[in-house]
From TrEMBL, chain A:
One of its GO terms (molecular function) is selenide, water dikinase activity. Keywords: ATP-binding, Kinase, Nucleotide-binding, Selenium, Transferase. Residues 175-336 form the PurM-like C-terminal domain. InterPro entries: PurM-like_C_dom, PurM-like_C_sf, PurM-like_N, PurM-like_N_sf, SPS/SelD. This is Putative selenophosphate synthase. Pfam families: AIRS, AIRS_C.
Automatic annotation (TrEMBL), chain B:
PANTHER family: SULFUR CARRIER PROTEIN MJ0990-RELATED, SULFUR CARRIER PROTEIN YEDF-RELATED. This is UPF0033 domain-containing protein. Gene3D superfamilies: TusA-like domain. Pfam families: TusA. It comes from Haloarcula vallismortis ATCC 29715. InterPro entries: TusA-like, TusA-like_sf. Residues 4-28 form the UPF0033 domain.
Length: 346, 82
């Protein structure tokens, strides 16, 4: 089904990203606005029936002593023009919130899809992309809801299960923990470059980096369609806290972990998709400050020093990309002071 | 005083448009940018401060999401060589 969708000629001529002002996870409402909204609505995050909920990547409810049900919803505007790829990225991104809690079994996805009337032909390839992506996560599409919308968007409500004691939140990091990131950052500048197609600026963007823009973009799509399932399966036994990197960027997600774990976070090493720092500088995105929005980014996990060897060995065995990017400290807030940049090529 | 209007432009075009306009200016000259897309304001501020362009917010305020920035080319400006 995926191969047919990919070669659909109508879909190839549509530029999905032209229909929105914000793209991928950069359409996410900011942390400050979200906090105000929750406070205004009286939603404190405490809910007795749940193991955890508001403020975390997903909610978890203990069903039995052996099973916890994790649920989450995530959808966003197109980050890529190809509808099949958009579907794959959307499914991967939605499931990532469940994986960030350590829940990797019994993955079901209820599709959330909105398209303008003139783009309804894209529905089938988007769904095909989502289904194929879920297949790689041993998950299924269990249903969904589709509406007409002036801005296209896609994603899903994900449910998954885990043993209650295997669950992770953003609250468990301790001073001294090593921090790992399981994908390089840089999806926003990589995909932003693909939206510059007019003669006026194509040369400026092309000349900004030594790498071909389509190579950078295709690598970004490869990373965005890599599920975080293997990564969390490898480390959840030893990790003390976890989240995934999304629209808040690496720095923003680090601030979440720092605040919720009552630690400081010092980031010293940033793996980036090769070529994206130059594009970020051109576009003013703040990638090397960790402020650039990420779409379907990697897992960000804290691991006690005593378990780093075991976790790195498990990542290696699973074939998962990972880099040690910093430490949790006894301080507060997030520090990114002249980090080393590692340009990653696939 | 040079002016550029990036309202309605989709990211990352506002940064590219402003960058091009700035590269035509000499030290001490000012460019006024009007936009309507909050993330673009942040990106423009970041791009300018890393390239030696002074950024101040103009007093005029339009609709809620609209912004106007005054960008002044300093002796440290490096955009024209980028």
């Amino acid at each position: 089904m995926g191969a047919d969708a990919e070669t659909d000629s109508d879909a190839e001529t549509t530029r999905l990203t032209e229909y929105t002002e914000l793209h991928g996870c950069s359409c996410k409402v900011g942390q400050g606005d979200l906090d105000s909204l929750l406070a205004d609505a009286g939603l404190t995050g405490e809910s007795d029936p749940l193991l955890f909920g508001i403020g975390e990547d997903a909610a978890a409810r203990k069903l039995t002593d052996d099973i916890a049900l994790v649920s989450t919803v995530d959808f966003f505007t197109p980050i890529v023009d190809d509808p099949y790829d958009f579907g794959r990225v959307a499914a991967c991104n939605a499931a990532s919130d469940a994986f960030a809690t350590g829940a990797v079994e019994n993955v079901d996805c209820l599709v959330v899809l909105g398209l303008p009337r003139e783009l309804t032909d894209n529905a089938a390839p988007i769904l095909a992309g989502m289904a194929d992506a879920l297949d790689t996560m041993d998950g299924v599409i269990a249903g969904g809801h589709t509406i007409m919308s002036p801005w296209p968007f896609a994603g899903g409500a994900i449910s998954a299960t885990a043993r209650p004691e295997a669950l992770l939140t953003s609250q468990g990091a301790s001073p001294g923990d090593q921090l790992y990131l399981t994908k390089p950052i840089g999806t926003q500048p990589a995909m932003g470059a693909t939206r510059v197609t007019d003669e006026q600026f194509v040369e400026t963007v092309t000349d900004a980096t030594d790498r071909p823009l389509d190579t950078i973009a295709s690598e970004a799509i490869e990373w965005m369609t890599t599920p975080n399932r293997d990564a969390v399966s490898a480390c959840r036994e030893h990790a003390t806290a976890a989240t995934d990197i999304t629209g808040f960027g690496l720095a923003g997600q680090s601030r979440v972990v720092a605040a919720r774990s009552n630690v400081g976070i010092e980031l010293t090493h940033l793996p980036v998709i090769a070529g994206t720092p130059d594009l970020s500088t051109l576009f003013g995105y703040g990638l090397t400050d960790g402020e650039s929005a990420e779409t379907s980014g990697g897992l960000f996990v804290s691991v006690p020093p005593t378990a780093t060897d075991a976790v790195e060995s498990a990542f290696d065995d699973a074939g998962v990309f990972y880099r040690a990017v910093g430490h949790a400290t006894a301080g507060r807030g997030v520090t990114i002071d002249d980090p080393t940049l590692e340009e990653v090529r696939r | 005083m040079a002016r550029v209007d990036v309202r309605g432009e989709i990211c990352p075009r506002p940064a590219l448009i402003v960058r091009q306009a700035l590269s035509d200016l000499d030290t001490g000259e000012t460019l006024v940018v009007r936009g309507d897309y909050p993330p673009a304001e942040e990106n423009l501020r970041r791009m300018c401060t890393t390239h030696g362009i002074d950024v101040t917010t103009a007093e005029t305020a339009g609709e809620s999401d609209e912004f106007e920035l005054e960008l002044q080319v300093t002796e440290l400006a490096s955009l024209s060589e980028a």
